[in-house]
Amino acid sequence: QVQLVQSGGGLVQAGGSLRLSCAASGRTMRTSAMGWFRQAPGKEREFVTSIDWSGYDTYYADSVKGRFTISRETAKNTVYLQMNFLKPEDTAVYFCTADVQHLRLRGGMSEYWGQGTQVTVSS
């Protein structure tokens, strides 16, 4: 019903920047809320950031506030994650996610998920 295709990621040194993209296709009216989770090896998936349909209501995990910025271009059905001042602890697989309910998305119960993209930050 909805497909989320991610791009970006890679290897960067500590203090560097990366930008992730996530493009939704299909029934995109069901992607009113979008966001990002991440999962490090051996750890549980954790919330990173999210944004509502308008782009004005955003949420961030405390660990990334002031460093990461989420944005979206609703007409393009695309959400972005700009990651600055990256730290080794940011190393994880990052997953794009979408849902019709923002609250459900933030709780890790999203209906749709991207394929994941690796972000590795070296010391």
Question: Secondary structure elements and their pairing?
Answer:
Blueprint: E1 2-8, E2 10-13, E3 18-26, E4 33-39, E5 46-51, E6 58-60, E7 68-73, E8 78-83, E9 92-99, H1 102-106, E10 112-113, E11 117-122
Parallel strand pairs: 2-11
Antiparallel strand pairs: 1-3, 3-8, 4-5, 4-9, 5-6, 7-8, 9-10, 9-11
Mean of all residue-level pLDDT scores = 96
Globular, elongated, flat, extended or rod-shaped: what is the shape? globular
**What are the segments in which pLDDT stays under 50 over at least 5 consecutive residues?**
none
- The amount of beta strand, in percent, is over 45%
What oligomerization state is this entry in? single chain
Structural class: mainly beta
First-last Cα distance = 41 Å
Proportion of helical residues: under 10%
**SSE run:** EEEEEEEEEHEE
| Total number of beta strands | 11
Q: Helix segment count?
A: 1
| Biggest β-sheet description | 7 strands, mixed
- The radius of gyration is 13 Å
